[in-house]
Amino acid sequence: MDETKKYLYLVTHGVESPERSASPFFLATTAALMDHESTMVFTATASGLLKKGVAETIRMKTGGDGATLDFFINQAREAGVRFYVCAPSLDLVGCTVEDLIEIDGVVGGTALNEMAGEADVVISF
């Protein structure tokens, strides 16, 4: 039997890089579907991806066709991926926790470092 691993995805790019926004959700979903613990932490401008109403406006392909980011977010949620936001990044993107979709928590630098130290795999976007 395979051992469950902890995957941590650190997401730093936000709405300014729509072409990069789906990949971390896709990979985190894949890890969760492989029965691994899968956690995403959003920092810097990535926290803006979780603002209510934003994901529905971001498309993966230019020209307005293709899936929207909320499709990938919903897949991740259904697979059991956990979402955390870095507290200082909320001010950076001009929002509060209440402005965000459902998340699992808010973390600071200490908690993020502990999560990274406990993870088997850390991937940064």
Give the terminus-to-terminus CA distance: 30 Å
Q: Which architecture name does CATH use?
A: 3-Layer(aba) Sandwich
**CATH class assignment:** Alpha Beta
Could you give the order of the helices and strands? EHEHEHEHE
Helices and strands in order, then pairings?
Elements: E1 6-11, H1 18-33, E2 37-42, H2 69-79, E3 82-86, H3 87-92, E4 105-107, H4 109-118, E5 121-124
Parallel strand pairs: 1-2, 1-5, 2-3, 3-4
Helix pairs in contact: 1-2
Explain what you see:
This is DsrE family protein. Pfam families: DsrE (PF02635). It comes from Sulfobacillus acidophilus (strain ATCC 700253 / DSM 10332 / NAL). There is one protein chain. By secondary structure, the chain is of the alpha/beta class. The mean pLDDT is 94. The protein has 4 helices and 5 strands. The protein has helices at residues 18-33, 69-79, 87-92, 109-118; strands at 6-11, 37-42, 82-86, 105-107, 121-124. It has one domain: Hypothetical Protein Ychn, Chain: A. Helix 1 (18-33) packs parallel to helix 2. Strands 4-3-2-1-5 form a 5-stranded parallel sheet, with helices on both faces. It is 34% helix and 19% strand.
Descriptive tags:
single chain; 125 residues; alpha/beta; Hypothetical Protein Ychn, Chain: A; 5-stranded parallel beta sheet; 4 helices; 5 strands; 34% helix; globular; DsrE family protein; Sulphur_relay_DsrE/F-like
Summarize this structure briefly.
The chain has 125 residues and is an alpha/beta fold. The chain has one domain (6-124): Hypothetical Protein Ychn, Chain: A (3-Layer(aba) Sandwich), CATH 3.40.1260.10.
